[in-house]
Design brief:
Structural class: mainly beta
Strand content: 35-45%
Strand order of the largest sheet: 1-2-3-4-5-9-8-7-6
Number of helices: 1
Oligomer: single chain
Shape: globular
Helix content: under 10%
Largest sheet: 9 strands, antiparallel
């Protein structure tokens, strides 16, 4: 484990598995997929990379419904997998079997003057996402 200006880097002894945790820079990781946008005007609070997956937390003064609509429009080319809305928390999920990539958006409404928290979780799976071996659409 080593500390950097951005946060922490933790690597396995053989260097094959590395986790990068950035709580300082407020930037998107350099290798973040270009087709997954950040919410306009949001502040990046945390980014983490583990293997080929990412977690990125943004904050915005906008309500969760507005953030959800933005991502629904931006990720319209991907297949919507699920949407759960439980009061102050909302989770949406998309997948793209061609890449293969799964995107999860977890939204938490801020109370009072606290901002909305939007966490993007990206996972890449080298195996087909569907049980049938991956169908094309």
């Amino acid at each position: 484990m080593k500390s950097t200006e951005q946060g922490l880097v933790i690597a396995s002894k053989d260097g094959a598995n590395t986790m990068r945790l950035d709580t300082m820079s407020g930037k998107v990781p350099d290798d973040w997929p270009k087709d997954i946008p950040m919410y306009p005007g949001s502040k990046i609070e945390l980014s983490m990379k583990l293997g080929s997956g990412y977690t990125l937390t943004q904050e915005t003064p906008d309500p969760p419904a507005k953030v959800a609509e933005f991502y629904k429009a931006q990720l319209a080319q991907m297949q919507s997998r699920s949407s759960v809305d439980i009061g102050k928390n909302q989770t949406l999920q998309w997948s793209d079997e061609q890449k293969p990539l799964q995107v999860t958006l977890a939204l938490t409404a801020g109370e009072g003057s606290k901002p909305t928290r939007a966490t993007l979780i990206l996972t890449r799976d080298r195996s087909p996402l569907s049980a049938g071996g991956g169908s094309s659409h």
